[in-house]
Specification:
Blueprint: E1 4-9, E2 18-24, E3 27-33, H1 46-49, H2 51-55, E4 65-67, E5 76-78, H3 81-99, E6 104-108, H4 115-125, E7 130-131, H5 139-149, E8 163-167, H6 171-174, H7 176-188, E9 192-196, H8 202-206, E10 209-211, H9 218-231, H10 237-243, E11 244-245, H11 247-254, H12 259-266, H13 270-282, E12 286-290, H14 301-314, H15 343-346, H16 349-352, H17 373-382, E13 390-394, H18 398-401, H19 405-413, E14 417-421, E15 434-436, E16 446-448, E17 455-459, H20 472-482, H21 492-500, H22 507-513, E18 515-517, H23 524-528, E19 538-539, H24 567-572, E20 575-579, H25 595-598, E21 605-608, H26 610-615, E22 623-628, E23 631-639, E24 647-650, H27 661-664, E25 688-694
The protein binds ligand MGD (2 copies), iron/sulfur cluster and molybdenum atom.
Iron/sulfur cluster binds at residues 10, 12-13, 15-17, 44-45, 47-48, 176-177.
Length: 699
Amino acid sequence: MAVTTVRTICFECHSRCGVLLSVDDGKLTGIRGDKDHPFSHGYICPKGRACMELVYHQDRITKPLINTGGKNSGRFREATWDEALDLISDRLLAIREKNGPESIVFGSGTTRGMAPYLNRFLTLLGSPNFMAPSNMSGGPIVVGSAATCGFGLVDPDYAVSRCIVLWAHNPENSWPGLYLHDIKTGLKNGAKLIVIDPRKTNFAGKADHWLQIRPGTDVALALCFIHLIIENNLYDKSFVEHWTTGFDQLREHVSSFTPQKVSEITWLDPKDIEAAAFTLGSVKPASIGPGMGGVCQANDAFDLARALTILSAITGNLEVPGGNLHCSPPTRKRSCYGPDYCAFNNLPKEQARKKLGIDNYPLLEFIPIPSPPQTVWPAITHGKPYPVKALGLFANNSICAYPNSMHVDQVLRSLEFLFAVDYYHTPTTDLADVILPPAHWSERDDVEDLLMKNHLFCQQKAVEPRGDCRDEKQILIDLAGKMRLDGYWSSVKETLDFRLEPVGMTFEEFRKNGFLSTPIQYKSYEIKGKFRTPSGKVELVADFLKLLNISPLPLFREPDESPVGSPDLWKDYPLVLTTGGRNLVYYHSSHRNIDSLKKRSPDPLLDIHPETAREMSIQDGEWVYLASPRGRVEIRANYDQDLHPRVVHAPHGYWYGVADGWKRLNINMLTDDQPLCPVTASVPIKALLCRVEKMQQTR
Ligand SMILES: Nc1nc2c(c(=O)[nH]1)N[C@H]1C(S)=C(S)[C@@H](COP(=O)(O)OP(=O)(O)OC[C@H]3O[C@@H](n4cnc5c(=O)[nH]c(N)nc54)[C@H](O)[C@@H]3O)O[C@H]1N2
Ligand SMILES: Nc1nc2c(c(=O)[nH]1)N[C@H]1C(S)=C(S)[C@@H](COP(=O)(O)OP(=O)(O)OC[C@H]3O[C@@H](n4cnc5c(=O)[nH]c(N)nc54)[C@H](O)[C@@H]3O)O[C@H]1N2
Ligand code: SF4
Ligand SMILES: [Mo]
């Protein structure tokens, strides 16, 4: 049979690079980058290249599995789809009958595109509880910037920018397909580069200003930037006058954040702070790229997001070419997190108000993000505010991915019913009553618009799902049928046609185009006469927050666990720990069993300054214990001359290939799930304390 080529987009990470898949006799035989893709321009990374290994891996789950050894035994038998879905349907209906629909939660990990379809299902089921890690991933930046200027500060316009700011953001590893081409174009055209990062990433090495900040002190630095830009008259006076609230109050608020004081907080040189602020204030247009990990995993993530948005606003960089854009996906209300799907928006108000999280984080009622896992846990373990009995996890390895793994393990064990949908067995699926095998992205049709600026992309099925694997949209259709959830779609085609209604195309028509885009509106506030905020202006001082007991001005909060925040603990744990700097070859805990990737990054490496290591007679490459008040893991010391001697970095996601690997190698054994950011429930996994212990025996 002739080899055919299918144009689609890769879903191994958020970048969604354009790829061309070769298919021979119904099998994937090759993948290459699509040069015509507007973002990735032919780029593809090792994960994308390895997708065939993933699809045809011997360990891939290809049939539904039912737990046979009683709860949590980890023993499974193969089942038919009918049997597995009947079991799930019966259990969910019984739980709904007894405990109410809100006692059933569906969760997804970092989005693999399932949010719309899960939300619609939950709406018909009657549960407002869609859980996802948005509180530690993108949610806080969206909530903080939406509360300030009415839209998410998530679309930096790097390609035509004159000043690129990577704030806790390392797109070379985290979003290469989406951002690298634009950043390189901007830099080639002479843009200045400012990088705020405790690690000397490649971009930090090339930057005009690299600020090697102490983890967790970013708000102090951002407030100092605001202070310097105002006091040096570098702000955009016309914009501030016409389009902002509370400038004088802001000016007063930041006046104490002098370079000298902030240098003591951040461990930066005051001159470096001043120089970077001067560049950001004077080179226009500037685009601030906030890290979805780096900025969103802190106890003051909301304030940081507000402060960065204020910086962009007062420098006149909101909604201008080369600044921070306001993009709307062509699918509008039917985009991935669009209001037409969101269970919270579509349920009767009384039921919607049961959404977990909004009691303690009231702003999330107005700027909804999915229920943070940490607000679901107490409902499972203690019935607070009401009992949650059943959890369905789609593409999520909670135990490895979420902070405080021992606690997560205990939470999942307390459930009455857990089902999981995953390609492979993981420590999380091990606890499930039923495991369902999903189709891979090369085996399914879909559309993608999340973080794709003003674009919409087509994902096309290239091959039939392996074994009994099934498109997750079809799984939901089948389950909805069994549970008699009237109003759910009846086919994948109908599901996708509904999604595409706002662009006036069916999926079959869209398939021919591959992608489409809508024009970007610059300065849309001038056309509309307002920003989408309560005051209609950029809320430098957001008075409406007072009604929710939230500070109307961004506040710096010392991390709860830090040399300053917990000086007693610092005596026992004398190193600052930041976790989860992205590794190009892995996606979180995924891809760990893929040989070609494992070879490139076999062991977890603790980046540590050689002097710090030598103080403890620790050699480069030596296996050591890394301990925090929560536990300890095994990790290999990796000398890094460029780190601050009191700061170490450990990667996340290691667990595979070692007995009890999730306890021995997984950094979330050390992270905490408390205390959370009081506004967004963000978890402080980028700034904690730890110590290194020498292993007595060789491993
Ligand atoms: N310490 C620390 N922990 C962190 C972070 C950190 O920086 N530091 N980052 C956090 C962030 S930002 C996030 S978003 C979370 C991510 O958390 P998760 O999204 O849970 O991360 P993954 O480990 O990628 O787990 C996803 C699982 O989905 C499966 N999978 C992949 N694609 C599909 C699919 O299409 N369908 C289905 N059904 N399954 C699929 C994979 O096999 C894998 O087992 O991790 C968080 N954890
Ligand atoms: N290959 C790969 N790509 C991914 C992922 C993956 O797992 N693997 N995960 C995806 C997901 S879900 C997300 S949310 C994004 C995250 O995307 P990013 O936020 O870009 O990624 P991170 O590596 O988490 O953090 C970026 C940088 O923040 C720095 N940093 C750590 N602590 C601090 C701090 O306290 N302050 C400052 N200023 N900087 C700090 C780190 O050293 C790191 O270089 O990546 C996405 N892309
Ligand atoms: S960066 Fe790699 S994994 Fe991510 S979409 Fe592109 S090819 Fe796929
Ligand atoms: Mo994330």
